[in-house]
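Q: What does the assembly look like in three dimensions?
Context provided by user:
Components: two
Sequences:
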Amino acid sequence: MLKVDNEFIEQLKVGKDFNASACLNCGSCTALCPLDIELLPRRLFRYVLMGAKKKVLENTNSIYSCMLCKMCEDNCPAEVHIVENVRSLRSYINRNVYRLEKDSPVKKSRSKINHANTYK
Amino acid sequence: MTKRRLGVFICQCGGNISDFVDTEQLRQSIEKNSLVMVAQVNMFTCSDAGQQNIITEIINKNLDGIVVASCSPKLHLNTFRAVTRRAGLNEYQYVHVNLREQCSWAHTHDKKAATEKGLRLIRAGIAKVSLANSLEKLRVKTLPHALVIGAGVAGLRAALALSDIGVGVHLVEKNHHAGGMVLQWGKMFPNDKKGSYVIKHLLNEIHRRENITLFTNAELLEKTGHIGDFSVKVRLGNNDTISLKVGSIIVATGFDTYIPQSGEYGYGLTGVITLSEYEELLASSMETLQYNGKEIKTVTYIYCVGSRENTKTDKPHLYCSRYCCSATSHAAKCTSEMNPDIRQFHLFRDVRTYGKYEQLYEKARNNGSIFLRFDEKSPPQVKEEKGRLIVRVKDILTGGEEIEIDSDLVVLVTGMVPRENAGLVNILKLPVGKDGFFNEIHTKLRPVETVIDGVFICGTSQGPKNLAESVTSAMAAVSKTGALLLKGYVDLEPFVAKVNADLCTWCGNCAKACPYSAIEQTIFNGKQVAIVSPVLCKGEGACVPTCPKQAIDLEGYTNRQIESMIDALAKEVINEKTDA
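A: Here is the predicted structure of the complete assembly.
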């Protein structure tokens, strides 16, 4: 059971910073992903739209494995700004999960984020 | 009677017939009949060349009757009647045999039997045409007035268009005021016009027209007469009745909204409302959306309520109601334009925002509406928990996961259902389809005509439509009415009952049997006899078997013709090659 978490939706600024409601669920993005990230971005974006906080945070590794190549975005028939959305998710996680401050040194953050071996 | 000279034209229908029926074998058998001067097989008898060939044969061989054995007469009866006329022969000296729908297509598994049946059918056609009388169509005058039943948007628009082309209109509305369903609606798709505005505009124009009379709180009580010249009785108010003469009748009685059963998707709980109630709420709200004094932050729409109930067993509504996906997308657009922070979840089965309305769907999605797709077999559940409306749905688009939406408002997108109108159906003898809506003759080719000559249907009385489609069909009914009434006359089929006054001894059986009151008593050569009014007679033949003296017969379907056809059908096929 996924509960729609309105607070989470507001924190992510869904509809503003994160915008994927135009998604038609066609799956072009998944098919084109050179990293074959199953979850990205289609299923993940649904979780965000639904405000399914737990599901989104469970998949932090996938969110960071994207190389932001824009292969999906260039071919999205609904013109969803996929890469911007991924960035805004990372930004949320950086701030709220890893507690990274704006000015934190990059080195420090690297030691905290362990996202190796997420390319399945 | 001199010996008949008949022509038989067998069509292959490019294989549709000849793949299963041996047309050449039929031709050889038929040719043996001494009345048959010409027997031919054609690839396409209905083609220009095929038609010209028939005309040439009629003239050259001096034929006095023809049989065309091809497709259903529904398709080409009038084609070959015209061919017969062009050849200078009476069009009722042509008989159509249905060798395709009723033979080749029905018996694709057994060619031998299909060929044998084909032979019997053609034999019957020959038997019928050899006894055919030359008949003339019955010409009756038409009155340039129409009765329009129902003053909703379709009826109002039809009345105005009839008025435009010079047909006087009596517009009858059951309610106390005109306007129908549209009057109650708020902003409508696609251009945000309010329903009340549209109706007001139409009514202003109606009142300005001298040749339109609008009767509200009125109802049709009785209809007699025939196409082009009906007499109708209309109840006005509580006691008065008025008699009117009209040439045609347009039925625009509209639909009823589906009312969910108590408990269906939580219907009955506070905050579970129908789409039309939501539209009213939207129309009356300015900046914030409130329900029961509480601000609305999350709206959940549930689609296809009362539509496409394929798994329901008890009186299901199997059809799609057509307007609802577009209307809901439009409502979502209006909602987000009023307050973009309102979260909207659409629980749909399939989105059918066809044609230009696709843009509404796109707009709704771009404005943040989220669409969740459910399967009919696992419908969403709506429950009240701690004063909140909780909607649970298995969303196919999120991998079939169950989603729980905490909602302030649940909007049930209800479909259209046929309006109960037993009285009117009975008076006009309207054909009602399985789904409860009125039936046209042909969905594609004769979309507003009914089997009752001179009675047309339009709008949502014939099935779910959006406003634009309703008005389009109203215009179609107007053009059919105009074509009928403005010509000044109408030609009717001459298949009517005829009394042999010499044999008749007036017992009254036939008059009692006639459902159209077409038979009356008269005096002929000093004795009482029956007489048939040809314009009232529908030629359905209920009178014929009741006559003890066999003094009544049906033109075009005489007892002799029918008997000889039965003989021909029953006659054994011993050797198809030599037998005819």
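Follow-up: Chain B touches chain A at residues 297-298, 340, 343, 345, 362, 365-370, 392, 395, 397-399, 401-406 (CB under 8 Å).
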